[in-house]
C-alpha cells in the first residue's frame, strides 16, 4: 500500500475518475420522472478474459420489446466511457456502423430501433488494476472483484443498468491465469470449468433467477475458504462457502456460523427459505461500504466477516453477525423482490435493516439491541435530518445515487418498517409480508406496493401512514397530562409537528405507572396519533406517571409541552418504569438535564441528586438483570446525541460539560465503582475462556464502563499515575480485544504521569497487531479519538505513517473519518481541523468519490454551529466547490450544503 504522502495522482484511472464532470454538468434525476424501458434485456451471456492490466469483456444481450410500453424506439445502454473502452458492437456477426446504426455518448450507447429478438454483442476493455473508485471491476489484494450497486455495472459493460431491467445471467464465463487466480466465482450455479492453454483456466456460471445488473458479481483470485452445508426446512441442501485472503481463513468461522443462524431465523420468522444450491461469501479488503447482497455471491468488507478472539471485539462479533444476517435477508427482501428504481431504495434497505435488527435481538438481547439502535438513530439520523442533506426515506431527487445510502434511508427506513409492525402486530406484519411476496416475487416494485400489501393483508387504510415516505426531518411530539381526581380520568394530550402539511400517523406506545405504589396500572398501549393535537383518556384509580414512547415506537423527538422537563417524573421512571427501554431513557434524560445545567452555569443540586440517585440505583443493579442494560444506563448520552438537543451546537462546551458531570459521578462513587470493578473482574475471570454470548459480553461491557469512570479521575499527578496503572493492568490482563481496546482508549488520552503507559501501550498494541489490517485500523482510530490537546498534529503525523493509505477505504476511515468524530478536536476554534479535512478531500476525491463525499458530510452542517465555526466550515466547502475537476458525488454534497 502506498502511503499518503506518496499517493499517486497521475495514473490514467485517477484522471478518468473525474473526467466526466469536466465535460458534462451534473444532472439531477427526479423520482417522478420515472419511465419504464421500451426495450428489455431478458438474457445476457458474458465472457471475462482477465489479463494483467487488461480485461476484455464480451457481452451478448438478448433484447425484447417491453410489452407494457408502446412505441419501441431506440435502445439506450448505460456505459461509463471513463472506464470501458468499446472495441466492437455487432448484431448477428455484423459490425454496426457508428452514427447510422448506433451512437456513442460519454455515458451511453444508443442502438437505433432494434428489432424484437435482436442479440447485440459488444466487446469492451477495462482496466480493473487502475480502478481506485472501487465501483465496477477492481483489484483488491490478490483478487479481482466487482461492485455494481448502484450503478457500477456500466463500468464493466454497456447495459440498461437500472433495477427494472431483470435478466437471466445465463452464461458468465470467467477466464484467468490458473496459478495466480485459482478461484473463479460468480452468481448462481457452476455449470462448467476447465483448463486452457498457457496455464489458463475458466469457469462458467449460470444464475436461474432473473436479476437486475446491480446484483451481478464476479470474484477472481487466489483465495482460501471454508465450507459447510445447510439443509433447509423443505430438505434442500445448500453448499456454503466463505472466502478470504489465504492468511485469514482461520477467522471465517464466526461468519459461517452466523450465516447458518440467519438461514434458520428467516425460515422460523418469515417462512423464507434459500433458493439456490450454493451460497458464497467473499471477504474483500478494499470495499466502499459494509457488504453487498449479490445473488448467491455476497461480497463483504473484511471488517464484517473476519473475526476471532484475539483480533475482534464483542462489537465486531456483533457486527459480523448482523451484517451476515443483513445480506442473507436481502435474498428475499432485495433480490427476489427488488426495487423498481433507486428512489425506492428504502424498500429493500429499511426492511432488511429491520429484519437484521430483529435477528440480532433474537440472537442476543432484544432490549439491548433496541437501546443500541435508538442511540444510533438519535446520534446519526437525527443529525442528518437536521442538516442540508435532509431527505425523506424515499428521496425526491439525486445527482449521485451513491450519496443516498444514508442513515435516513437505512435506519429511519427501518424505524418506519418497525411502525408497521407496531401498528399491525407481529401476526399482521407477517400477513403483510406473505402477501408482498405472493404479489411481487420476481419483480421490481415501489414503496407504495409494500404499503399496499400491508394494508390489504390486514384490511386497514394506511394512506395517512404513507406520509412517512415523503416527509423529511424529525417530527416532534409534545405531551402534557392532567389527572382529575374526582372522575379518576387521566388525560394525555399529544401534539405533533413535522415538515408534512398534513399530520402524520404516529404510533405512540404508552404505559401508566401508579404514582404511589410504582405499579404499572395501564400496560403498554399503542395510541394512534393521527391529528395534529389529540387527547387520550384513561380511567385510573389514583394519579399516575405516564411512560411515553416506550421502545421508541416512532422516530420522533418527544418533549414536554411546557418546555421544562419534569425531573421528578423522570427520577420516578428511572427507578420504577416496568419498560426497560424507558427506564434507560428516563435516566438518559436526567443526565442530559444535568449536563446542560452545567454548561449554562446553572447547576441545580436537586437535579444532580436525581442523577446520583439514578446512578447509584443502577450501579447496585436494582430492577436490572442484564449487565449490558446496566452498562448503558450508567453511560452518559454521547456528545453526538447531546448535540442534537442544541439549536446552535457548541462542541467544546458539550465536551466540557459532559466531562464535568462524568467527573462528579466518578468522584462521588469512586469507592463503589472500584468495588464493582473488582467484583466484575472476579466474574470475568470465573467466566473463563472468552465467549461472545450476551451474558459474557454484558459483563465485559459493564466492567469497561467502570474502567472508563475510574480512568476519568486524573487531575493530579497521583491520580494520573493511578489511572494509568489501572488501565495498564487492564490492558495486560485483557482476555480479548474488547478489554484491550477499552484499556487502550483510556490510555490513549492520558498525559502527565500517564504518558509513559500511554506510549508503551500504543507501541505494544501496534507490535501485537503484526500488520493485520483490521487491528491496525483500530490502532489508528484509537489515536484519532484521543482526548489530547495536540491530537490533530498526531493525526497529521499518522497520515505519513507507512501503513496509512487513502486507497483502502477502511484505513482512510479509521484515521480520517474517525477524527471528524472527535468533536472538540475536529471543531477546534482555530479551524485547523476543518482545513485538514478540506485539504485531504482534494486528494481523496481524485481517488474515490464515494469515500470523499462521505467524508465531506462532516463539514456540511455548518449552519448548526456559531458564526465563527460556521464560517470556517463554509470556507472549506467553498474551496471544494470551486475545485476542478470535482466528482459528482462530492459536488452534490458541497453544493447542497452551500445552497
Ligand atoms: N446494498 C448494500 C447493503 O446494504 C450496501 C451497498 C450499497 C454496498 C452500495 C455497496 C454499494 O447491504
Ligand atoms: Zn442492505
From TrEMBL:
InterPro entries: Aminopeptidase_N-like_N, Aminopeptidase_N-like_N_sf, PepN_Ig-like_sf, Peptidase_M1, Peptidase_M1_dom, Peptidase_M1_pepN, Peptidase_M1_pepN_C, Peptidase_M1_pepN_C_sf. Keywords: Aminopeptidase, Hydrolase, Metal-binding, Metalloprotease, Protease, Zinc. Pfam families: DUF3458, DUF3458_C, Peptidase_M1, Peptidase_M1_N. One of its GO terms (molecular function) is aminopeptidase activity. Its cofactor is Zn(2+). The keyword Transmembrane helix does not apply. One of its GO terms (biological process) is proteolysis. CDD domains: M1_APN. The keyword Ribosomal protein does not apply. Residues 473-558 form the Peptidase M1 alanyl aminopeptidase Ig-like fold domain. It comes from the Eukaryota. Residues 568-898 form the Peptidase M1 alanyl aminopeptidase C-terminal domain. Residues 254-465 form the Peptidase M1 membrane alanine aminopeptidase domain. SUPFAM superfamilies: Leukotriene A4 hydrolase N-terminal domain, Metalloproteases ('zincins'), catalytic domain. Residues 88-215 form the Aminopeptidase N-like N-terminal domain. Belongs to the peptidase M1 family. This is Puromycin-sensitive aminopeptidase. It comes from Seminavis robusta.
Amino acid at each position: 500500500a502506498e502511503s499518503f504522502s506518496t499517493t499517486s495522482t497521475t495514473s490514467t484511472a485517477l484522471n478518468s475518475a473525474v473526467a466526466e464532470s469536466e465535460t458534462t454538468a451534473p444532472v439531477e434525476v427526479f423520482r417522478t420522472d420515472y419511465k419504464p424501458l421500451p426495450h428489455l434485456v431478458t438474457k445476457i451471456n458474458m465472457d471475462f478474459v482477465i489479463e494483467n492490466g487488461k480485461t476484455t469483456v464480451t457481452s451478448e444481450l438478448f433484447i425484447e420489446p417491453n410489452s407494457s410500453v408502446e412505441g419501441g424506439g431506440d435502445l439506450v445502454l448505460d456505459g461509463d466511457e471513463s472506464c470501458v473502452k468499446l472495441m466492437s458492437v455487432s448484431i448477428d456477426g455484423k459490425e454496426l456502423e457508428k452514427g447510422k446504426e448506433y451512437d456513442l455518448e460519454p455515458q451511453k450507447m444508443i442502438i437505433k430501433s432494434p428489432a424484437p429478438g435482436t442479440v447485440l454483442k459488444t466487446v469492451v476493455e477495462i482496466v480493473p488494476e487502475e480502478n481506485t473508485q472501487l465501483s465496477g471491476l477492481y483489484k483488491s489484494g490478490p483478487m479481482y472483484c466487482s461492485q455494481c450497486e448502484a450503478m457500477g455495472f456500466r463500468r464493466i459493460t454497456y447495459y440498461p443498468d437500472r433495477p427494472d431491467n431483470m435478466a437471466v445471467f445465463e452464461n458468465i464465463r470467467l477466464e484467468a491465469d490458473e496459478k495466480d487466480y485459482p478461484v473463479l466465482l460468480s452468481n448462481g450455479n457452476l455449470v462448467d470449468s476447465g483448463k486452457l492453454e498457457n496455464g489458463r483456466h475458466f469457469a462458467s456460471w449460470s444464475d436461474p433467477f432473473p436479476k437486475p445488473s446491480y446484483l451481478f458479481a464476479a470474484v477472481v483470485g487466489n483465495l482460501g475458504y471454508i465450507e459447510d452445508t445447510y439443509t433447509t426446512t423443505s430438505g434442500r441442501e445448500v453448499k456454503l462457502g466463505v472466502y478470504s485472503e489465504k492468511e485469514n481463513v482461520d477467522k471465517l468461522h464466526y461468519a459461517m456460523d452466523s450465516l447458518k443462524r440467519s438461514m434458520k431465523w428467516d425460515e422460523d420468522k418469515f417462512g423464507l427459505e434459500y433458493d439456490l444450491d450454493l451460497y458464497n461469501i467473499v471477504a474483500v479488503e478494499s470495499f466502499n461500504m459494509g457488504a453487498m447482497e449479490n445473488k448467491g455471491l455476497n461480497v463483504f468488507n473484511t471488517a464484517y466477516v473476519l473475526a476471532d478472539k484475539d483480533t475482534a471485539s464483542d462489537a465486531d462479533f456483533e457486527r459480523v453477525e448482523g451484517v451476515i444476517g443483513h445480506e442473507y435477508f436481502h435474498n428475499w427482501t432485495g433480490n427476489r423482490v427488488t426495487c423498481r428504481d433507486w428512489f425506492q431504495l428504502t424498500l429493500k434497505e429499511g426492511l432488511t435493516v429491520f429484519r437484521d435488527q430483529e435477528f440480532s435481538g433474537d440472537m442476543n438481547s432484544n432490549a439491548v439491541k433496541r437501546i443500541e439502535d435508538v442511540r444510533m438513530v438519535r446520534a446519526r439520523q437525527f443529525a442528518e435530518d437536521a442538516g442540508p442533506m435532509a431527505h425523506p426515506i424515499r428521496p425526491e431527487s439525486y445527482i449521485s445515487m451513491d450519496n443516498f445510502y444514508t442513515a435516513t434511508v437505512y435506519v429511519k427506513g427501518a424505524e418506519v418498517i418497525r411502525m408497521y409492525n407496531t401498528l399491525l402486530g407481529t401476526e399482521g406484519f407477517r400477513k403483510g409480508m406473505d402477501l408482498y411476496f405472493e404479489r411481487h416475487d420476481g419483480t421490481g416494485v415501489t414503496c407504495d406496493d409494500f404499503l399496499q400489501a400491508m394494508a390489504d393483508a390486514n384490511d386497514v387504510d394506511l394512506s395517512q401512514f404513507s406520509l412517512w415516505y415523503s416527509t423529511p426531518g424529525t417530527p416532534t411530539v409534545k405531551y402534557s397530562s392532567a389527572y382529575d381526581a374526582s372522575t379518576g380520568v387521566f388525560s394525555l394530550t399529544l401534539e405533533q409537528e413535522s415538515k408534512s402539511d398534513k399530520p402524520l400517523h404516529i404510533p405512540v406506545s404508552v404505559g401508566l405507572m401508579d404514582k404511589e405504589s410504582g405499579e404499572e396500572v395501564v400496560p403498554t398501549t399503542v395510541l394512534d396519533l393521527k391529528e395534529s393535537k389529540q387527547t387520550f383518556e384513561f380511567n385510573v384509580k389514583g394519579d399516575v406517571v405516564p411512560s411515553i414512547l416506550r421502545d421508541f415506537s416512532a422516530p420522533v423527538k418527544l418533549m414536554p409541552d411546557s418546555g421544562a422537563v419534569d425531573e421528578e417524573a423522570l427520577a420516578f421512571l428511572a427507578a420504577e418504569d416496568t419498560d426497560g427501554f424507558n427506564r434507560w431513557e428516563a435516566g438518559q434524560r436526567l443526565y442530559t438535564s444535568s449536563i446542560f445545567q452545567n454548561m449554562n452555569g446553572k447547576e441545580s443540586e436537586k437535579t444532580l441528586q436525581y442523577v446520583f440517585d439514578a446512578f447509584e440505583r443502577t450501579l447496585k443493579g436494582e430492577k436490572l438483570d442484564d449487565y449490558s442494560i446496566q452498562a448503558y444506563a450508567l453511560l452518559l448520552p454521547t456528545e453526538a446525541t447531546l448535540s442534537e438537543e442544541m439549536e446552535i451546537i457548541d462542541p467544546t462546551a458539550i465536551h466540557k460539560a459532559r466531562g464535568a458531570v462524568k467527573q462528579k459521578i466518578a468522584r462521588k462513587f469512586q469507592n463503589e465503582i472500584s468495588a464493582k470493578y473488582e467484583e466484575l473482574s472476579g466474574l470475568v475471570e470465573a467466566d473463563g475462556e472468552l465467549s461472545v454470548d450476551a451474558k459474557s459480553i454484558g459483563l465485559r461491557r459493564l466492567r469497561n464502563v467502570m474502567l472508563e469512570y475510574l480512568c476519568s479521575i486524573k487531575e493530579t499527578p497521583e491520580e494520573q499515575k493511578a489511572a494509568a496503572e489501572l488501565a495498564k493492568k487492564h490492558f495486560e490482563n485483557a482476555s480479548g480485544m474488547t478489554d484491550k481496546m477499552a484499556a487502550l482508549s483510556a490510555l490513549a488520552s492520558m498525559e502527565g504521569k500517564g504518558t509513559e503507559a500511554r506510549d508503551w501501550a500504543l507501541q505494544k498494541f501496534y507490535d501485537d497487531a503484526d500488520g493485520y489490517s483490521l487491528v491496525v485500523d483500530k490502532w489508528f482510530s484509537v489515536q484519532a479519538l484521543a482526548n489530547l490537546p495536540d491530537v490533530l498534529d498526531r493525526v497529521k503525523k499518522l497520515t505519513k505513517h507507512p501503513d496509512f493509505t487513502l486507497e483502502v477505504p477502511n484505513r482512510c476511515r479509521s484515521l480520517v473519518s474517525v477524527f471528524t468524530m472527535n468533536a472538540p478536536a475536529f471543531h477546534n476554534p482555530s479551524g485547523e481541523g476543518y482545513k485538514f479535512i478540506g485539504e485531504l478531500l482534494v486528494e481523496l476525491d481524485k481517488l474515490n468519490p464515494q469515500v470523499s463525499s462521505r467524508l465531506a458530510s462532516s463539514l456540511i452542517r455548518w449552519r448548526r454551529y456559531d458564526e465563527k465555526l460556521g464560517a470556517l466550515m463554509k470556507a472549506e466547502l467553498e474551496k471544494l466547490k470551486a475545485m476542478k475537476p470535482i466528482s459528482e458525488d462530492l459536488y452534490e454534497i458541497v453544493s447542497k450544503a452551500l445552497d
